[in-house]
Amino acid sequence: MPAIRLRDRDALITKEGLIFRVFGYSHPSEALVCDLEYAPSELFKSDNPKAPRTSKKQNVFYKFYEDEGWKFLRDAFPKYLITHDMLQSETISVKQSDVSEVRRPNEILKKLVTEKPPDELVAEMQDALKHVTQCSGLSTKDFGVFGSMLHDFHHPKLSDIDLVIYGRTKAARLCETLQRLYKEKGSLLKNEFDTNEAIRGKRWRFQNLSPEEFVWHQRRKMIYALFNHARSGRTIKTEFEPVKDWPEIINDYDPTARIVQKGWVKMTACIMDDSDAAFIPSVYRIRPVKVIDGVDCAAEVARVISYVEEFRMQVRNREAVYVEGNLEEITGRQGSFHQIALTCCPRYYEQVLKSINTD
Known about the structure:
alpha+beta, Beta Polymerase, domain 2, CATH 2.40.50, eight-stranded antiparallel sheet, five-stranded mixed sheet, 5 helices
């Protein structure tokens, strides 16, 4: 069968009815690196009150949280744990031969904006998108929809609005527009992190990032909004997720290269290139300044790469930063280099990337 061309945030449904989200842009030739997001109730049930999802066809699915998806696949569907050549360890991946359906955010959004809205949340999404495109000069074809609305799981009175914005330049234009709108009196859109309300009452687990630092960094990302419209009578959390446009995508998966763990590192650095900071994985080219703790080769780190959404768009060019995470050496045909990876790991909440110029 011809190769399926997909990108971050696209969704795969397997023959068993499992729903995976495509993760990033670099994949083996015959599989796609993914996250497992949902399973039908016939295969998995969760006691987490946030987990159940019901489609318009009354099919019940459960969302996976933290490492639930990995454990489920290990026990029930190990064929979806495939050895990643570069890491020499298993990652959640789906072979193209196991894909029964593909859901692309841009295609689903196109249907949702051209049809009569089936409920008030879709109507609100249409209004929010119309407002943003009119103010920015962007087109609806520059956007997609993800989350519960992509899968027809959304609750009209409770769910959020989750949108994709495609392309580096378009994402930058959107952020500039949102920054302006947030400042306007009576604007329909506000910055979700103008206050600390978004984290109020939440258990704080990051050890090297305070709640105040988290809010400061989130506020300036601009992609987290609150949409306030009279139609539903509620304020709706609205997110704009940057995803690469097709010409920007390079699959740098190299089965001959190897990623070797070198240990934990703590250091300060200067950001030299943040052009891929908006995407997952987020990549920051750096110039090391001071190694606080770590092996000698830490002074040679060329970049920080984050698979963690908290550190997307976290820091900017020329900023002084503090970073803590796993040091890796990547060796391949072109030579070798070192990077700090922020990812799912036993020391997840010790990881950090933050500006140290937050005054």
